[in-house]
Amino acid sequence: MFWVLLLLLAWAVAGLACTRLCLAAVHAAAVDVHAGREHDLTLYEAAFLSGGPRRVADLTLVSMARQRRLLLARTGWATVVDPRGRDDIERSVIGAIGPGGQSPIAPVRDAAADAEAVGTLAERLVRAGLAVPDGARTGIAAEVQRVRLAAVAVLALGGIALLLPGGAELPRHLVALWFGLPLALTLSCLAIARVEVHPYSRWASPAGQRLLGALSRHTGGGDDRTYLTTVAVRGVRAVGEPDLRAAFEQRASLWRD
Q1: Nearest to residue 113, comparing CAs of 48, 41, 69?
Q2: Could you tell me the pTM of the whole model?
Q3: Which residue, 154, 155, 246, 253, has fewest beta-carbon neighbours within 10 Å?
Q4: pLDDT of amino acid 146
């Protein structure tokens, strides 16, 4: 009968982990469905909701480069042409480049993403119900990890039960079947989380995603704002200029060196 105790433990581990994940998902989704209904996203806001702080930094670099106020070389270096930033985020980028007026793009991007101006933007979006708070994102990720560990624990407990000395009242295949039930619970929970919970673990809340969806339908035109909107929503892979794209492709290798 010792295997029954192991089965009860498996159910307890699986049930607790799945319950915590469900509660975390409910907490992340508990936003005002009408949030942002009258809100028109700025380019910075669209970038943050699409890709977080680093996307905001990328958008700023691309925007300044297209206005010839920043030179992004194919070698992966950024050079300041106009040292007067037009807003706090642009000033953060210029400050990250440093007094020498030149720096590799990768550290500039990282510093600009961590700047106070981007943090203020994030707080404003969270208050408006358009962005997911940090705690909700990390909370769901942690609970998903707990469910994965619970699945492993159920497998381990089932293996121990099958390896116990003879004398069990049930054949081994029936014992395995009983342990398959809590395992199915954890795997089903992970599958549902991948489909239903995953969107809430990103930067945009459901209301923010709705605004992004409306914005995405207006990308693809030829004017400069539409171009920058596409970069904000899709990232630097939407950059069309070969030289500018090459500059961003070089940033990672330069930063590793």
Answers
A1: 48
A2: 0.68
A3: 253
A4: 94
| 21-30 residue pLDDT tens | 888 877 766 6
Coil, strand or helix: which one is 63? helix
Nearest 5°: phi and psi at 72?
A: -110, 105
d(CA 45, CA 89): 12
Identify the three-state secondary structure at position 144. helix
What does the pLDDT average to over 123-143? Answer: 81
Q: Work out the angle at residue 253's Cα, subtended by the Cα atoms of residues 248 and 257, and round it to the nearest 5 degrees.
A: 140
Residue 133 phi, psi (nearest 5): -60, 155
Q: What are phi and psi of 77, to 5 degrees?
A: -110, 145
Phi, psi of 68 (to 5 degrees): 60, 25
148-160 pLDDT per residue, tens:
999 999 999 999 9
- Tell me 122's DSSP state: H
